[in-house]
Amino acid sequence: PVSGRAINMSEAAVTEKIVQKGDSIRELKSNKADVSAIKAAVADLLALKAEFKTVTGKDYVAPGQGSSKKKKKGGDGGAPKPKEGGEVSKKQANKDARKKAKAEAQAKAAAEREEKRKAELAAQGTAATVESDASLFGDAPLITSHEMTDKVWVDIKNLSPEMADVERYVRGRMHVSRKQGKGCFFLLRQGLYTVQGVLFQGKNVSKQMVAYLAEIPPESVVDIRAVIRVAPELIKAATQSSVELHVLEVHVISKAAPVPFQLDDAARPDGDESGAGVGQDTRLNYRWVDTRTPANQAIFNITSGVGGLFREFLHKRGFVEIHTPKINMGAAEGGAEIFHVDYFNQKACLAQSPQLYKQMVAACGGFEKVYEVGPVFRAENSNTHRHLCEFTGLDMEMTFKEHYYEVLQVFSDLFIFIFDQLNRRYRDELETIRAQHPFEDLKFLQPSLRLSFAEGVAMLNEAGFSQDPNGDLSTENEKALGKLVKDKYDTDFFMMDKYPLAARPFYTMPCPENPEASNSYDFFIRGEEIMSGAQRIHDVALIVERAKAHGIPEAGIQSYIDAFKHGAEPHGGGGVGLERVVMLFLGLKNIRKASMFPRDPTRLTP
After folding, report:
1. pLDDT tens-digit readout, 328-358
2. Can you give the residue range of the structural domain that contains 470?
3. Neighbours of 18 (CB within 10 A)
4. What is the domain count for the chain?
5. Could you read off the pLDDT of 240-275 as tens digits, one per residue?
6. How far apart, in whole angstroms, are the C-alpha atoms of residue 377 and residue 339?
7. Among 86, 205, 289, 474, which is 20 to 30 Å from 139 by CA?
8. Residue 503: inside a domain, yes or no?
9. Per the omega criterion (within 30 degrees of 0), is the bond before 469 cis?
10. Is residue 367 one of the residues assigned to a domain?
11. Basic and acidic residues bias: where (predicted)?
12. Is position 215 annotated as part of the catalytic site?
C-alpha cells in the first residue's frame, strides 16, 4: 500500500468495525447459522481487513497476537541435514554450490537488465534534484465540458508495436502501482485490456512527480500523456504485453476511495482457494466495482452481442422491431404470478410477456414478421440458480403458410447464427471468461436436432426416470434429458415439440393428430429450457373456448379477441430469456452472473 491516498475511515474506525464483524461471525457460528450467511460475513471481514491495510499500510493483527513469525519446521530454514559430526556430504555440497551459482547468475543478469533499463529511462538527464513543471502532474480540474482540445487519444486495446515512438493520451483506471528506487511501474486498465507504464526521475521528472504517480489509489481514473515504446521483454502481467507507456504527464481525473474488495480477489478462477474470494452478495452490493473484472466485462459484452445478433439476423430476414406496453390490464399467460400496480385507480399488472400484442401486430395488424427486445416481469418466488423476477425477453412472432415447422426453421437458423457469430466475433471475451469460469464449447448440430415430447419421455423412462406423458418436464428431468441427448446425439442444443395441451397457455393450437397434444415446442441448451413457443390459435371461437378452459375471464382479453374478428393469418413464435441464454452458452452456474443488476425475490437494490 502507498501512503497519502484518500481514505474513508480512520485506523480506529476500521479496527472497531473489524472487531464487531469478528464478534458477529463468532455469534453466527455459535448459533449454527446458515453456511452461506457465515461465508458472506467472512467475505465482509476480509474486505474490512483489506481496507485496514489500505489505510495503515500494514496487515491487521488481532489484539493479543504476536507479530513474530513462527520458525519453519526443523528450525534450519530447510538447510541440508548434516551427517554425524556436522559434515555435509560432498555430493550435496556440490549440488548446493551449483544451485547457488545458477541463482547468482540469474540475479546478476536481472540486475544488469534493470540497470540498463533505468539508464535508458534516465538518459535525458540526471535530474534527481530537478523540479517537474507543476502542469505535468497533479489532480485535474473537474471536467465540466468547458472546452475541447486537439489531444489525440488511443484506447489501450489498440496499443501495438506499430505505434512505437508515437506520443498519445490514454485514459484508464490505475490497476496497480509499484515504486522502485527513483522510478515507478504501474498497470493502467481499460475494460478488458491493460498496459504497463513507467516513469523515472530525469529531465522534467522530479521525485515529487514519481511519488505522486506511485501514490495514486487503485481504481482511480487517470489521464496519461506518454510515448509508446516497444517493451524490452514481454510483460506477462499486461494484455498489451509487447508495448509500454513512457510517461510524460499524469493527471488524476477521479480519485477512488478504498474499494470494498480487491479486484484480484474477485477475478480468481473458480475453485482457486489460494486466497480470499468475494461472496456473491458482496459482489452484487457493489456491482459497479464487480463489473470491472475482466470476466464480467467480457460477460456483458457477450450479452450485448446476443441481443445485437438477434436483431441483426431478424432484420435481414425482413422482421420489424416493435415495442409493446409493459403496463397491462390482465396477464397474458393467466395465473397469479404477476406484479400488480395501481394505475390511476384501476387495477393493472406488469407484463409477463408481449405475447398478445405481438400476435395482434403480426397476425392481425399486417406486419407478418415482428420481434421485440424488452423487460419481462414474473412474480415467481423462486430462489434458484436460473430464475429472475425481471429479465430481458427476446420475442419473435411470424405468420406462416402451411405448417409451424416454418417457424421452427427460422428459430433453428437464428440460434445457429448467434452461436456461430459469438464464437467468431467474441474470441477474446470467451477466452477471458474461460480463464475465470472454465467451460466447454457449446456443441450444436446443423440442422438442429428436433425430438417430439413423446420421444423425450421415452428416453427418460428407458433411462429409469419417471415422467408423466401428459405433464410438463421437471427441472431434474430437463437436466437428465439434456445429458441423455448429449450422450446419444453429441449436441448441447435441441428442440422438442408436441407438448401436452394441458401444460400450455390458452392461445396454443391443439395438435390435429392427437387432441391431448399441442403444436408447441421448447428449445434447450445444456439440459435447461431457454425458449417456449407454439403455433397460436387464429380462430376467434377456438380462442374463446380455450380461454374458458383455462379459467381466463373473457373481459380481461376482450381487445385481444376483437383483433381476431377482422381476419387473422396462421402464425407462431416464441420468447427467449436473454440472461438464461448467456448463462447456458457460457456454462455459468448462476443466472445472476449474466444479469447486470439482478432482481430476485430478495434483491431490489442496487
Report:
1. 987 655 555 899 999 999 999 999 999 999 9
2. 294-594
3. 18
4. 3
5. 999 999 999 999 999 999 999 999 999 999 987 766
6. 7
7. 289
8. yes
9. no
10. yes
11. 81-120
12. no
Same domain, yes or no: 327 and 402 = yes
Catalytic residue among 246, 287, 385, 387: 387
Give the pairing of strands 193-200 and 243-254: parallel
Catalytic position from the list 5, 173, 189, 386: 386
Task: Clarify whether 538 is annotated catalytic.
Answer: no
Are 492 and 577 in a shared domain? yes
Same domain, 235 and 341: no
**Active-site option among 244, 249, 429, 529:** 529
Residues 250 and 303 in one domain: no
- What does pLDDT average to over the chain? 88
Greater confidence (414 vs 107) lies with 414
**Considering 201, 228, 254, which residue would you say is the last residue of a domain?**
254
386 is catalytic: yes
pLDDT in tens, 455-471: 999 999 999 999 999 99
441 and 322 fall within a common domain: yes
Question: Which residues of 351-467 form beta strands (DSSP E)?
Answer: 369-377, 390-399, 449-452
DSSP per-residue codes, 425-476 = H-HHHHHHHHHHS--PPPP--SSPEEEEHHHHHHHHHHTT----TTSPPPHH
Q: Using CA atoms, how far apart are residues 360 and 346, in angstroms rounded to an integer?
A: 24
**Of the residues 378, 536, 538, 546, which is catalytic?**
378
**Cβ proximity of 386 and 591 under 8 Å:** yes
Quick check: is 378 catalytic? yes
pLDDT digits (tens, 9 = 90+) for 508-529: 999 999 999 999 999 999 999 9
Quote the DSSP letter at residue 604.
-
| Within a domain: 18 | yes
Query: Can you tell me the mean pLDDT for 304-327?
Result: 98
Set 215, 333, 337, 380: catalytic member: 380
Same domain, 503 and 416: yes
Task: Check if 452 is active-site.
Answer: no
Residues 352 and 228 in one domain: no
pLDDT range class, residue 1, cuts 50, 70, 90: very low
Question: Which CATH number does the domain housing residue 170 bear?
Answer: 2.40.50.140
pLDDT at 306 over 70: yes
User: Catalytic: 323?
Assistant: no
Same domain, 219 and 356: no
pLDDT tens sequence across 555-572: 889 999 999 999 999 999
Q: Which of 206, 412, 448, 532 is catalytic?
A: 532
Domain holding 514: CATH number? 3.30.930.10
The answer to whether 16 is a known catalytic residue is no
Of the residues 198, 226, 254, which one is the last residue of a structural domain? 254
Cell matching residue 474: 421437471
- At 101 the pLDDT is 79
Q: Which three cell numbers stand for residue 163?
A: 505505434
End-to-end Cα, the chain, rounded Å:
30
